[in-house]
């Protein structure tokens, strides 16, 4: 399989502060890859290195098979969309879209063709003669995307392009970005701290922390088989329930409860009895009529109920441990009630407490 972008042993340091360390990442041709992580994890820094906006300390960056580690941004065959729209306020939308092409001295007919094509794809034909001040936030972001689109490049870089928009507009533009990728099939690298954006847009997600990639995989892999406690905690809203106990003889034991762990067995060279952490997603806990079919059944004490419309979030106590449950929005539960729940250990994740890695 051919790679559109290859990052090899990339280092970046600001003085004594190491931001990226020996980072390796291969991005497939036509892939939508999301760099996901909290503020300060290095995701935007990595994107800026790919774009050529930051000079790396060591390592190499290849785009379409060419070593561009020291190439100027204009020579890398990339189009970038920033968090801020960065539009020229004195120019019309048409002027903003065509400005870079005019500087590149493209023929007038080709410029008009590219602008018309980008405007058609983004459905902004009616806005071409307006100035940015007369546009909404969503319209401005479409223009910013269009400015990258007219360059007709192989790789698009997005640095949190939706973070300045309101919630509904973010959803609308997220759908449009997905549709745009399906239509163009260009390689797209997208930075965000929003896990919903990552899960819905990505072919693969690179979850980052401290300048390193914690896990690289499909949304399904990241969600169902997190490699470590950090990824498990970061993905999911609300995040996993974590309970500390002992893993021994194929069972996770906590207080007076024993949970047989299907698929988790003793591995040669690893201790058979060790401190462990089990992770159970709130949406994987069943209630009501489904409890009778669950392999493990418990009763929790309800502390707090958060109705959220489409679903209801329950804060409860499992023994002495805090425990969250996501229920259907029509569920009627009150604080102080005892609630029967069911858990399928096959859907749980088990981590070694010392290393925090998945067992």
From TrEMBL:
Residues 5-235 form the ABC transporter domain. SUPFAM superfamilies: MOP-like, P-loop containing nucleoside triphosphate hydrolases. Keywords: ATP-binding, Nucleotide-binding, Transport. GO terms for cellular component: ATP-binding cassette (ABC) transporter complex, substrate-binding subunit-containing. Belongs to the ABC transporter superfamily. InterPro entries: AAA+_ATPase, ABC_transporter-like_ATP-bd, ABC_transporter-like_CS, ABC_transpr_MalK-like, ABC_transpr_MalK/UgpC-like, Mo/tungstate-bd_C_term_dom, NA-bd_OB-fold, OB_MalK-like. One of its GO terms (molecular function) is ABC-type transporter activity. One of its GO terms (biological process) is carbohydrate transport. It comes from Yoonia sediminilitoris. This is Carbohydrate ABC transporter ATP-binding protein (CUT1 family). The keyword ATP-binding applies. Pfam families: ABC_tran (PF00005), OB_MalK (PF17912).
């Amino acid at each position: 399989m051919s790679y559109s972008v290859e990052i090899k042993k990339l280092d970046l340091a600001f003085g004594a502060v190491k931001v990226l360390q020996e980072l390796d990442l291969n991005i497939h041709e036509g892939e939508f890859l999301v760099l996901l992580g909290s503020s300060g994890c290095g995701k935007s820094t990595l994107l800026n290195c790919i774009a050529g906006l930051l000079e790396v300390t060591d390592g190499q960056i290849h785009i379409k098979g060419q070593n561009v580690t020291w190439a100027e941004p204009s020579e890398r065959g990339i189009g970038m969309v920033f968090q801020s729209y960065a539009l020229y306020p004195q120019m019309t939308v048409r002027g903003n879209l065509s400005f870079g092409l005019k500087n590149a001295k493209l023929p007038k007919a080709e410029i008009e063709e590219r602008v018309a094509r980008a405007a058609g794809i983004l459905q902004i034909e009616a806005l071409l003669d307006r100035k940015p001040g007369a546009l909404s936030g969503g319209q401005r972001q479409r223009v910013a995307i269009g400015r990258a689109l007219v360059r007709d490049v192989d790789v698009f870089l997005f640095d949190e392009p939706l973070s300045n928009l309101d919630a509904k507009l973010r959803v609308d533009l997220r759908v449009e970005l997905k549709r745009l990728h399906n239509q163009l099939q260009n390689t797209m690298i997208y930075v965000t701290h929003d896990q919903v954006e990552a899960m819905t847009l990505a072919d693969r997600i690179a979850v980052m922390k401290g300048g390193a990639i914690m896990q690289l995989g499909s949304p399904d892999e990241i969600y169902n088989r997190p490699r470590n406690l950090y990824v498990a905690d970061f993905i999911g809203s609300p995040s996993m329930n974590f309970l500390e106990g002992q893993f021994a003889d194929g069972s996770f034991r906590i207080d007076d409860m024993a949970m047989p762990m299907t698929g988790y067995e003793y591995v040669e060279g690893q201790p058979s009895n060790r401190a462990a952490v089990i992770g159970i997603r709130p949406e994987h806990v069943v209630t009501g009529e489904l409890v009778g079919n669950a392999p493990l059944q418990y009763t929790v004490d309800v502390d707090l109920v958060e109705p959220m419309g489409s679903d209801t979030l329950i804060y409860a106590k499992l023994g002495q441990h805090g425990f969250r449950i996501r229920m259907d929005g029509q569920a009627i539960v009150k604080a102080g009630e005892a609630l029967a729940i069911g858990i399928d250990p096959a859907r749980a994740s088990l981590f070694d407490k010392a290393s925090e890695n998945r067992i």
